[in-house]
Write a structure and sequence with these properties.
Length: 240
């Protein structure tokens, strides 16, 4: 709607810019062969030149049946007023109409060209808008798809978080049990080391006792053997 208003506004300005030809009060030499252009208002004044029919004259003043006129060349003089008419001559009307026609045709050509350019621009902008609309729709669908994907990921993340949270509670319980077992294991290890130490001590003590007992038995056997042997030697000496 704004573009249509802009086009109408441009066309209105172009039409208003067409010049309107207005005619000032100008006289013309009537349909005579020649008209004398004198130095003063009367036949007693010398003739400066002769003027042909349809020569435009700018009326300056009037005196004694004569007009003081100015020519397009800038010359000023006097002419008999009865040979001056104020209706635009037909050849000049035709020439003026032809000029206006040419100007109008030029304006129409310019307007047609401008209109074609505006149509092309509107078509291009319409096409661009169509492409932009398609691109925006595509972007909108992509955003919706991404949003749906993000929502799915969010739900999965929430589910994973809940699972991890539940697992973390079990992990804490397992860790606490593991720590308790480690403490118990340390206690048992210390107890085992102590028992091993005590066992080693007891083993060494037992070995010493058994060794002493063995030595005692051997010593006792040797003493008994010596005693028996001594008794035998005594018996033999008594018998001999």
């Amino acid at each position: 709607m704004r573009k249509c208003s802009t086009i109408l506004w441009i066309l209105t300005i172009l039409f208003l810019s067409i010049p309107i030809y207005s005619q000032a009060r100008t006289g013309y030499v009537s349909d005579t062969l020649i008209l004398t252009f004198r130095q003063g208002p009367g036949t007693s004044f010398s003739v400066l030149k002769t003027l042909r029919s349809n020569t435009p004259l700018t009326i300056l003043e009037e005196d004694k049946g004569y007009f003081k006129v100015a020519l397009a060349s800038g010359d000023a003089g006097w002419v008999d007023k009865q040979f001056v008419v104020f209706e635009t001559p037909k050849p000049q009307i035709i020439e003026q109409l032809n000029r206006e026609k040419t100007a109008l045709e030029t304006r129409v050509g310019t307007l047609s060209s401008s209109l074609d350019q505006l149509k092309a621009r509107l078509a291009t902008e319409k096409s661009d808008q169509g492409e932009k609309a398609v691109a925006l729709e595509t972007s909108r669908k992509e955003v919706l798809d991404k949003n749906a994907a993000l929502l799915t990921q969010l739900k999965e993340s929430q589910a994973n978080y809940s699972t991890l949270q539940a697992q973390s509670e079990n992990v804490i319980e397992v860790v606490e049990k593991n720590e308790a077992l480690e403490k118990k294991n340390i206690t048992l290890s210390n107890r085992l080391a102590q028992l091993e130490k005590e066992t080693s001590h007891m083993f060494r003590t037992g070995m010493i006792k058994w060794f002493l007992a063995g030595v005692g038995v051997l010593l006792l056997g040797w003493i008994i053997g010596q005693s028996v042997s001594s008794k035998k030697r005594r018996s033999s000496s008594l018998l001999g």
